[in-house]
Design goal:
Blueprint lengths: L2 H10 L5 E4 L7 H16 L5 E5 L18 H11 E2 L4 E8 L2 E8 L8 E2 L6 E4 L2 E4 L2 H10 L20 H10 L9 H7 L3 E4 L4 E4 L1 H7 L3 H4 L5 E5 L8 E4 L3 H15 L6 H14 L9 E5 L3 E7 L18 H10 L11 H8 L7 E5 L4 E7 L6
Parallel strand pairs: 1-2, 11-13
Antiparallel strand pairs: 2-5, 3-6, 4-5, 7-8, 9-10, 11-12, 13-14, 14-16, 15-16
């Protein structure tokens, strides 16, 4: 943000898209709650990009300034992504103004309204310069406007289209029977919601789903897009193995790694089935969690972030299917056709281990995760 733009915002004062704060108390729980509520309210309000300007007294507009070291973008991103649903695209910048340092949190106008707080499920909005809960009709209106949109279409702030593996993009459209070349590449990616144009910055950003499926550098923008293997069964390999990349390359690398680590007669296809389901249906908004595979002699545990369904019993054929945008891209791109019949994955897993050991499925609402516990490596030596 330039000085002229900031001066204009200060002169106009607080409103539905602008809030002044003398400081943020992010070291205490109450401060983090209030901060998430304010971000949610500004994001839900109409009018384009919003701003939370820190270092200004809200009533007098007096410039107080802040200590820059007290505010970090990683901390702010973590608070917003873990407390707001769906994730709200934000960024942090600092600017010198009247010999003082100010922090500005940009709240981008994403296509996922209405946003709500995970903790209590409440929806907030700005009414003038105050934060209030959304009324029923406001929630309904916001849902109607954005009903066909989903988390995968959120823009990744500061992403650049150069991070996209264009070979995958060309492959996708060719498999769809769509002619693609340099002249129509950008428009096709925009129409498919791989990228989105941000009017404020006058540049393209890559969407959340676009990064996951089409970027080999996804870990730069989405650090939790990884599979972590904890190996306690084969000393010829490292104890902790982290696999990153685009979703298909992660799956391929994970399958190759497990084949090498586990005993040759272990029915690894049963684990592969669970990994495919985890990649397809994990909750990618949980930015502090990754898919984890724990290899032990007595058991092998696959942990996927996010519950499968909000209930006590797990259906083996019907469960919440998140990430349908990602699903469509993967079934098109995967030459091995591993995702075509993903809805019956639980039944296939059981068949792989029939007569060889028992599988346990744990849908933990308390931990907000789904676990599959397989027989251990000792069972197949």
């Amino acid at each position: 943000m330039d000085r002229k733009r900031l001066l204009n915002l200060i002169k106009r004062g607080e409103g539905t898209k602008v809030d002044f704060k003398q400081k943020l108390d992010l070291d205490v729980e109450s401060g983090r709650k209030e901060f998430a509520k304010d971000i949610c309210a500004i994001a839900n309000s109409k009018g384009g990009r919003g701003y939370l300007i820190i270092g200004i007294e809200d009533k007098t507009k007096k410039v107080i300034g802040i200590e820059e070291k007290k505010y970090g973008e990683e901390q702010i991103q973590q608070i917003v992504s873990s407390r707001c649903e769906p994730p709200i695209p934000v960024s942090l910048e600092f600017i010198n103004f009247e010999n003082k340092k100010l922090a500005i949190i940009n709240i981008y106008d994403g296509p996922q309204k209405p946003y709500q707080l995970r903790e209590n499920g409440a929806f907030y909005i700005r009414r003038g310069s105050t934060t209030d809960t959304m009324r029923k009709d406001e929630i309904i209106s916001a849902l109607q406007e954005n009903l066909s949109l989903n988390t995968e279409l959120c823009p990744i702030v500061r992403s650049d289209i150069d991070c996209i593996n264009t070979n995958l993009v060309y492959k996708y459209f060719k498999l769809k029977g769509i002619e693609i070349n340099e002249d129509n590449l950008i428009s096709l990616m925009e129409n498919a919601s791989i990228i989105i144009f941000d009017k404020d910055s006058n540049k393209y950003m890559v969407t959340f789903g676009g990064i996951l499926v089409f970027s080999d550098l996804s870990s730069i923008y989405i650090p939790h897009n990884m599979i972590k293997i904890i190996n306690k069964v084969n000393k010829n390999f490292k104890e902790t193995i982290v696999i990153q990349g685009n979703l298909l390359s992660i799956l391929d690398s994970c399958e190759d790694t497990l084949r090498k680590i586990l005993p040759k007669n272990y029915p690894v296809n049963g684990i592969f089935e669970g990994i495919r389901n985890a990649i397809l249906y994990r909750d990618y908004t949980l930015s502090y969690r990754e898919i984890e595979i724990k290899l032990n002699y007595n058991s092998i545990t696959l942990i996927s972030p996010g519950v499968l369904m909000n209930g006590k019993n797990i259906s083996l054929s019907q469960y919440s299917k998140r990430n349908m945008w990602i699903y469509e891209k993967l079934i098109t791109l995967d030459n091995k056709e591993r995702f075509l019949d993903s809805g019956r994955g639980f039944l296939r897993m059981k068949r792989y281990f029939k007569g060889r050991g028992r599988l346990i499925f744990v849908n933990s609402i308390r931990e907000n995760s789904f676990k599959i516990i397989y027989p251990g490596a000792n069972s197949f030596k």
